[in-house]
Specification:
- There is one protein chain.
- The protein is α+β, with helices and mostly antiparallel strands.
- It has a domain of about 150 residues: Nucleoside Triphosphate Pyrophosphohydrolase (Alpha-Beta Complex).
- It contains 10 helices and 25 strands.
- Pfam families: Hexose_dehydrat.
């Protein structure tokens, strides 16, 4: 196809774009939602790649580099060791991350107190997707990136997916490609920029900067990168383990149009309910030495729960031909079992709604964030009596095919988690299954309301953002 690049706007940081310094300008770009909608509608042809040719392109990128991941005992970790005083798993540089212990006390649920290993990584990374118009349609620069924890290793990632240690080259590796578009004012026009949480069950108060930036000037695509429309990415989100978690969370932050003028609960009421949920929960957390975490056992190759549930801490050796560093060793968290993550959906007076859960997780910065209706690993609750099983889990597991509006298996963060996968679903229900007035801690919200909340940090959790990305890209219609 013939590709024509068009430039629609100067960088947001350029005062000259709005006239003289000090001149006022519109508070919102009213054209942006329309441009995103047009990109979401373009599903077959891209500037560089047709959707039907993507699988061959990804396979070629897999053949172009050597990738290998091997489990190793802790003693073979290079640069990592257990601190003699605390037993915490630390890197000799003092950077990257540490595996520590956490004690959690909550005020609701069958488990009111527990201890666990957790990842502590105070630095804020950048998850950034670069956008550019070709033939009048926004495209997004996506990367074929290897992550050691992904079962199939290579998945579609953001343009930039880097911790501060990565892009400041603590590891003395190669420069992170395209990072200047996200770190230098004036290199692009910011479309979205928000701090978002990571997995609150495995990270302690971890945030990443989620960014969409429209490029200024030519941006040649490296061989491991390709330009895709939102619609093409939506098509790929229908497949298992293709679009990685970091890309999904950034796509959830896209400021798409809010087409709903009505909702079961007005915005102010919804915010009041959510503030009330944050206020009423008591969550106490305390960092403890990893060597003293109750109920967990350490042997030469793993740290695991005595009951065999939840997850394990393991170690791997990695080779990756297209990464900034070609080889390294590191610890990873490996969950036990496939997760199930789902929004229940209903229409009220023709308006689609999602059943959101004000979810408590020990690693959150605040007490709760809005999560999907269901976010569990079923095997962790199989031993419990029915009264103590998570609400709505059995309803999702028993959903007939005609009620499932979307289903795909997606990997969680492959840089820290090994073979961590969940079935992501939208499941339609009716009044007989879930009433308009659901149990405490749950609230019906529209997709537009969720989209408005995700523009603020620490309101919507990372699992809910995956499902929101499927909506934003047109992978599913409710």
């Amino acid at each position: 196809m013939t590709v024509t690049t068009t430039s629609t706007a100067a960088p947001a940081s350029s005062a000259g774009a709005a006239g003289a310094a000090g001149a006022v300008r519109p508070r919102r770009d009213d054209r942006l939602p329309e441009r995103l909608a047009r990109s979401a509608a373009e599903r077959a042809e891209g500037a560089q790649l047709r959707t039907e040719d993507f699988a061959d392109w990804l396979a070629e990128r897999r053949r172009a580099h050597r990738f290998a991941v091997e489990r190793i005992p802790f003693a073979e970790l290079d640069g990592w060791s257990f601190a003699p005083d605390s037993g915490d798993l630390v890197h000799r540089s003092g950077r990257f991350f540490t595996v520590e212990g956490l004690r959690v006390e909550v005020d609701e649920g069958p488990f009111r107190r527990w201890e666990q290993p957790i990842i502590r990584q105070p630095e804020v990374g950048i998850l950034g997707i670069l956008a550019k118009e070709f033939d009048g349609v926004l495209h997004f620069l996506m990367q074929a990136k290897m992550e050691p924890g992904n079962r199939n290793l290579l998945q579609l990632s953001p343009t930039v997916q880097a911790t501060r240690s990565n892009y400041t080259r603590v590891h003395r590796g190669a420069n992170v490609r395209y990072v200047e578009h996200f770190t230098r004012p004036g290199e692009g026009r910011v479309l979205a920029d928000v701090l978002q949480s990571e997995h609150g069950s495995w990270f302690l108060r971890k945030s990443n900067r989620n960014m969409l930036v429209e490029a200024v000037g030519d941006v040649p695509a490296h061989d491991d990168f390709c330009w895709l429309t939102l619609g093409q990415i939506g098509e790929l989100l229908r497949a298992d383990n293709v679009v990685n978690m970091d890309a999904r969370t950034v796509l959830a932050c896209a400021p798409v149009a809010d087409v709903e003028s009505r909702a079961l609960h007005p915005d102010t009421d919804l915010l009041s309910w959510f503030t009330g949920e944050r206020s009423r929960h008591e969550v106490r957390t305390e960092r403890v030495p990893l060597s003293r975490v109750a109920g967990w056992v350490r042997d030469e190759s793993s740290i695991h729960h005595a009951d065999g549930r939840y997850f394990r801490v393991v170690a791997v050796s990695v080779e990756a031909g297209n990464r900034e560093v070609k080889g390294w060793t590191q610890p990873l968290f490996e969950p036990v079992g496939l997760g199930v993550t789902a929004f229940l959906t209903r229409r009220f007076d023709g308006v689609p709604h999602l059943l959101a859960h004000a979810r408590v997780e020990g690693g959150f910065l605040d007490t709760v964030e809005l999560g999907p209706t269901v976010q569990y690993t079923p095997g962790n609750y199989a031993h419990l009596p029915r009264a103590d099983r998570p609400p709505f889990l059995d309803l999702v597991l028993a959903a007939p095919p005609e009620r499932v509006r979307y289903e795909a298996v997606h990997s969680e963060e492959g840089g820290r988690f090994l073979n961590a996968e969940s079935r992501y679903l939208f499941v339609e229900v009716d009044e007989s299954q879930v009433p308009a007035d659901p149990p405490p801690g749950y609230r019906w919200v529209t997709p537009g309301q969720l989209t408005s909340l995700v523009r603020h940090g620490h309101y919507v959790n990372v699992q809910a953002r995956t499902l929101l990305a499927a909506l934003n890209t047109g992978a599913v219609e409710l």
